[in-house]
Amino acid sequence: MQSTTFLFTFLIIAFVIFMIYSAILMYHWFKYAMSTPVALSASISYMGLGFVLLFVMLTVSTSLL
Amino acid sequence: MIPAAFNTHEINLQTNEVVISVMRKHWFILFLSVMPFFILFILPFIVMAFIPSAGISSVAIATIVFFIAGWMLVMLMIIFTIWTVYYLDIWVVTNQRIMDIEQKSLFNREIKTLRMDTVQDVQVDVVGIFETFLKYGTLRVQTAGTGGTDAKIIGIPDPSLERDIIIAQTHLIHNAPTTP
After folding, report:
1. Is A53 in CB contact (< 8 Å) with chain B?
2. Which end of chain B is more exposed for a tag (fewer CB within 10 A), N or C?
3. C-alpha–C-alpha distance, residues A38 and B33, integer Å
4. Domain that holds residue A21
5. Measured on CA atoms in the order B151, B153, B159, B161, is the torsion positive or negative?
């Protein structure tokens, strides 16, 4: 149970860091010399891959409950 | 020469100013920067292939998978940061100015503007086997009244073509008829 709590804490920290970093990257993609299609595809691929990895972490954590 | 994925509104073009060329660094520069982190990204799979799973408890396997996903998440963030810095680092040549927009890191952006009529010297350096065969190099532009290089872009594709564009444009400006 203690290890599960640790994994969930780690997951929440990873999620928060990922979201903050996403906001920073998207600020750059949409503000500077990127056109909207490029910025959108970059956002979709980055967020997509990131959420898949976070989902794997979540699935593994819940499987240990 | 002007990539479709480029917003000219950020540059604030002046009256009668036309963008002639927009260049990013050569793809090989990006490849060299991303490659180590891509290897680190897939490294857990390579390591897992060599570790026998027999005798390892399901809890341990689940924990390992959890941290592998976390590791890949960090690598993903690093790779996208490298790509962002690469993508935002551009070199714009208009018929009036040269703009060297250098994205050094996420929060370090330097924009240099050189007036085309002050350009005195354009130098191209192609050094090494990769630069020679993949046709990229360093372009340096020097303007009047300064001793050193005013603008430099490392790893620009086809630097000779870019030099020719700048030289042709400076000739046009210098040979333009002056109004009385």
Report:
1. yes
2. C
3. 20
4. 2-63
5. negative
**Pairwise CA distance, residues B11 & B19, whole Å:** 10
ipTM for the predicted complex:
0.91
User: B20-175 has which fold?
Assistant: PH-domain like (2.30.29)
* Distance to chain A for B114, nearest Cα, Å: 19
Chain A residue with minimum CA distance to B62: A60
* Six-digit token string for B91: 């070199």
State pTM to two decimals.
0.86
The rounded distance, in Å, linking the Cα atoms of B46 and B49 is 5
Residue B90 dihedral angles phi and psi, to the nearest 5°: -130, 165
Number of domains chain A contains: 1
Helical (H) or strand (E) element with B90: strand B90-94
| Token pair recorded at residue A22 | 């996403």
Distance CA B67, CA A58 (A): 11
Strand ranges for A3-52 from DSSP E: none
What's residue B152's pLDDT? 85
